[in-house]
């Protein structure tokens, strides 16, 4: 295959009989260049197929204006809303976002960390995989004082900046709501307990049970990766147990919806026989029948806050600034039909 030729500012300069420095300034919208010249240069650049070499530019400026972003999966509703907030907020500050998916594997997460470090991003936003138990592989950023901010899922004992939801309160509110709707035997679908989110949501669940003097029953705790398939398997086991639970708190909406669908296949009435609360306020929670009571955790706002934090760190790396180190978003219970009193 014939190698594609690369148009440079020197080619544009030669074509227009201008200096390379004038072309460079025109392409950067430098106010020293008059409108007529700027327009002529930019038109020629477009026609000739000029593409800026951002790597070379970042080396010269010691700034790429790019923020790396590692998420488990972009298809997750919460992450997609957070990414939207990140993208919009980053654009306001003049930054672009480069996204990588870990696919919930530590190996891919490690690879992405090193890729983004090699690409000299100005900072890194990250959501830990469900199985990340250490932040050691993020050390290239930490040791080189490149801003690193975790949001949503944070590795245990991470000493840096984080943006999270109030997962303990979310677990507490969900369980308390079920109790107030008359439930006494409440099951819990939890994510893998290497992950901070699910540790805190489980702790909130246990605290609500304790407050209302309902004993915690290990047999009612199902720990899995909260996918539709895993939740369906857990639901099949739970719905064939005796006695049946009268309530379920699921640590995400995906598993709550899977449970409702499995209950429907078995002609078990929701909320008549079992009341259900999910977590995240996914779109699915609004369109499932019955509609799902859930916990709102403000993905879009969390994304915005994550960018606001990392941009402050990028722009003031050599200064003493006041940035909240561990920002926690409040959560809200959204009551719907799945916990309605009969």
From TrEMBL:
Gene3D superfamilies reported in the protein's UniProt record: 3.40.50.2300, lambda repressor-like DNA-binding domains
Single GO MF annotation: transcription cis-regulatory region binding
InterPro entries: HTH_LacI (IPR000843), LacI/GalR-like_sensor (IPR046335), Lambda_DNA-bd_dom_sf (IPR010982), Peripla_BP_I (IPR028082)
This protein's UniProt keywords: DNA-binding, Transcription, Transcription regulation
Top-rank lineage group of the source organism: Bacteria
Start and end residues of each HTH lacI-type domain: 7-61
Protein name: LacI family transcriptional regulator
Species whose genome carries this gene: Chitinophaga japonensis
